[in-house]
Amino acid sequence: MSCPDPEKTAMTPSAPTPVDTSMAHRTAHATVTVRDADGAPLTDTDVTVEQVRHRFAFGNIGFDLIPLANGETSGPVENVFGGAAPDQGEHLAALWLDVFNTATLPFYWAGFEPERGRPDTERLLRTARWFQDRGVAVKGHPLAWHTLAPDWLRELPTAEVAEVLRARIRREVGDFAGVVDTWDAINEVVIMPVFVNEEHENAITRLCREQGRVPTVRLAFEEARATNPSATLLLNDFDLSSDYERLIEDVLEAGVRVDALGLQTHMHQGYWGEEKMLAMVDRFARFGLPLHLTENTLLSGDLMPPEIVDLNDYQVPSWPSTPEGEERQADEIVRHYRSLLSHPSVQAITYWGITDDGAWLGAPAGLVRGDGTPKPAYDALRRLVKEEWWLPATTLRTDGEGRVRVSGFLGDYELRVGGASGTVALDEAGQTVSEVALTS
């Protein structure tokens, strides 16, 4: 994909939002009344408080864990974008689950339904449930996209393409409802009607060119919304220029309900830096919608030359991770996550890959080397997510009315006294009041 420079193409540059090192908008200070199973307050009692989940969506793709979730321990990797060998599954799963709470699964139509009428539903559904059973939220990517549209779709007339796409969206959203409730409803619409493939034109590009961008977006959102009214639906793009801003304006003016905006930042040519990143985020925050940084990569090896326009055009026989690159990646990932969490509009960050094994474009963008050992960037991100921004098991004492003060990042917390426990959710930043009943 190409990656326009958002600094050069912004409609109206704006001052970046200052980094809020206090993270006040991400934290709560809750006065919690702790009661026993009968409702009586537990006064002057030691209570163990421990965070169990972040409210913020720290995401990564779950492609590499599909074989593990399906009991596939050997054989080829059945994933259109490659992936780790199945025998690495258990090891990678442990690393993945120790940091991330949101998984993106691949619903690329060409790989999901290479033969019409034979979708890979059961395999992806088992994978989604595997993540759900481990407390991980699951997102599907994407429902509509011109790239990786199935070849069999090209043979259909445009009107039938539209109907088949509608049916595809209804089927996936319906089959996965309750397990996958967040979707990139449509992907990369800015380039969709003008996308050129030297071999042949795909059917989704033809559809979008003939009926227009906004009607194509409306098709995807309305079919998904009608099938699962409670789903969270994203408009997602890599083109972060003013063209995307105009598309968003047109879509919203047309009355299409968009739940969140997806912003891709594959930084194969180097980290943009905090000022540039926050200026870009500010431009899209003006729409008043939650922002999801849906596809993030930072390299631990040589950077792609700056003159490359379409990242897919860079082809090298080997692209290794290097010690110097790994140190740079670790520094940049901390800066990247700190700056994004400082912006109140950012609701989710999805890193694009746990491992270098089978990584997109062969780039050394993973947080784990091909041999399974964590890079410094993995350790640095884990320290942020599970140490600096995490409350470990802590003993507090209730007052004479059974109250205890819990302070931490927004999320879910477990309170324990002896063999009894209960949970409390810190959902609102600032000062809050709550209560929890402990049961055995």
Automatic annotation (TrEMBL):
Signal peptide: none annotated. SMART domains: Glyco_10. SUPFAM superfamilies: (Trans)glycosidases (SSF51445). It catalyses: Endohydrolysis of (1->4)-beta-D-xylosidic linkages in xylans. GO terms for molecular function: endo-1,4-beta-xylanase activity. Belongs to the glycosyl hydrolase 10 (cellulase F) family. This is Beta-xylanase.
